[in-house]
Amino acid sequence: MRTGSAAASPDGDPRWDPPAYDVLDLDWAPALLKRVGEVAGLEEVHLDALRRATDGDAALDLGFLNTPPHAIAPFGGVPTGLDASQVTRVSELLGRIDMPVLLTALPV
Fold first, then answer.
1. What average pLDDT does range 69-97 have in this prediction?
2. Out of 44, 47, 79, 80, which residue is the most buried by the measure of CB atoms under 10 Å away?
3. Calpha distance 31→4 (Å, rounded)
4. If phi over 0 gives left and psi between -120 and 50 gives alpha, with beta otherwise, what is residue 66?
């Protein structure tokens, strides 16, 4: 999942491709990310933000994808997402996690 801010984009493009240092990839191993946070003693507010970032919050109604002319096969569980204000809050909380400190708290 590549995220960026349209406000930070030079031309306000919501598909802006931010620089590598401004990208958070949460799609590779969400269960492992959460477990690392738990083992390292991440505060509950940050664990919840991580859960919401990887699991979403509210179920999304994508029923329109099963009606012509857009009908497609089901693609797994019920998709979830966050609204714009939730994305802002989760992003702020994740940005406050001191990753170097978190990683040093993990057992060798």
1. 82
2. 47
3. 23
4. alpha
